[in-house]
TrEMBL record:
Name by which UniProt lists this protein: Low temperature requirement protein A
Record PANTHER family: BLL5714 PROTEIN
Membrane-traversing stretches: 32-50, 62-83, 95-114, 120-139, 151-172, 178-195, 215-232, 244-265, 277-296, 316-335, 347-366, 372-391
Sorted UniProt keywords: Membrane, Transmembrane, Transmembrane helix
Length: 395
């Protein structure tokens, strides 16, 4: 059995594919360890978005955040989908994964210069380290499994070509950088579809759902931290006591509602085809980015109430409410709409619209903390819709 399972080539064990029907497949300790690094990268990107938004550089900050967040998210996606199919957990797999983690650390450090100065040098350098390790993993797969050899070689070749283009991106003139960035994003997103068209890798639908849930918790944790900070500020500062308490309660209620909405059911039954899986994976970019931006929105609203942010009350509420609305719509489109009636879906879309419209209350002489509380009330109504629909009982 050992000989059949570990045919050695140059001292490297044969890579073992995972069973896509494995029962109780969950995140491994190594995957959770890697998630910690990506949590740092998300936190640094959110911190720079906060700096941009509080200094009234909102447009530039959001564009830079979306660019950097794509780099963080796509690196995580590449690892997650590979690990779902080929987590052999031998010494070679662990070494190559830890190498990817080292690259992710470089990427995390590069988030700040990328958002502040538009310098993606460190991020590209981190990607080079991660991609070299990932390509080595796919070559191991090609050498170990003839049934998916074409797919593995396509992944290795596609990742390598696009990575070379990213290295050349460092020399692109500033006025063309955003356009070229979008072209390279399309190239990145095309690699999985191109590779898996030659044959599906044995990724595990339940494991994918579990991994995406873990990343959702990472980005929502930032929001809970911001709400906790509000409560701490309320205790330390006698002034703005009521406002800080309202923001803290609203922020926590919104974060809890987002958690409730996301984890009310899962999409494992839907993730049986390659097309659905790609839609689910790529669509989560907006869900994750919105959750990260929501935590920043809470901090901006706190700074506005403390008189430290160069934004209006309506702008502060906009930066809080719109990410929540995008998150709700994204989860509805990717997961919930298949389990809801037409009327329930309409309520969800309407609820997201009402949350996005809450900043208008600040224009109507309603204090931003009260507008945030109104958004939390709408979120509570969406939770009621979920419970009335019976989605959780059918999960």
């Amino acid at each position: 059995m050992r000989t059949a399972e570990y045919t050695r080539r140059l001292g490297v064990p044969k890579m073992r594919a995972r069973d896509p029907l494995e029962v109780f497949r969950s995140s491994s300790p190594l995957e959770l360890f890697l998630d910690l690094v990506f949590a740092i990268a998300v936190s640094l990107a959110s911190a720079q978005l906060f700096q941009a938004e509080t200094t009234a550089h909102i447009g530039e900050g959001i564009v830079a955040y979306l660019m950097v967040f794509f780099a963080v998210w796509w690196a995580w996606m590449n690892f997650t989908w590979f690990a779902s199919a080929f987590d052999s957990d031998d010494w070679c797999y662990r070494v190559l994964t830890l190498t990817q983690m080292a690259g992710a650390i470089v990427l995390a450090v590069g988030a700040t210069p990328a958002m502040v100065d538009g310098d993606f040098g460190l991020i590209i350098g981190g990607y080079v380290v991660m991609r070299l390790a990932l390509v080595a993993q796919w070559i191991r797969v090609a050498c170990s499994h003839s049934s998916v050899r074409r797919t593995a070689l396509r992944f290795a070749a596609g990742i390598s070509v696009v990575q070379v283009l990213w290295v050349l991106f460092a020399f692109v003139p500033d006025h063309l950088s955003k356009l070229i960035f979008c072209v390279l994003v399309i190239a990145e997103l095309s690699v999985p579809a191109f590779a898996e068209s030659a044959g599906r890798t044995p990724w595990h639908p339940g494991h994918i759902v579990d991994r995406f849930g873990s990343f959702t918790l990472i980005v929502l944790a930032e929001s809970v931290l911001a709400a906790t900070t509000a409560a701490a500020n309320a205790i330390e500062q006698a002034t703005h006591l009521r406002d800080f308490v309202l923001i803290g309660l609203s922020g926590f209620a919104l974060a809890a509602g987002m958690w409730w909405v996301y984890f009310s059911t899962d999409a494992r039954a839907w993730l049986q085809s390659r097309r659905n899986a790609l839609t689910f994976g790529i669509g989560h970019y907006l869900v994750f980015a919105a959750a990260g931006a929501f935590s920043t929105g809470i901090k901006v609203l706190l700074d506005f109430e403390a008189g430290r942010a160069a934004v209006t009350g309506a702008e502060a509420m906009l930066l809080l409410a719109v990410p929540v609305a995008v998150f709700v719509l994204g989860v509805w489109a990717l997961i919930l709409r298949r389990h809801l009636t037409s009327l329930q879906s309409a309520c969800f879309v309407l609820g997201a619209g009402l949350i996005a419209a809450c900043p208008l209350l600040s224009e109507a002489w309603v204090a931003p903390p009260v507008a945030a509380l109104a958004a939390a009330g709408v979120m509570a109504a969406l939770v009621v819709v979920i419970e009335v629909s019976g989605v959780r009982q059918r999960a």
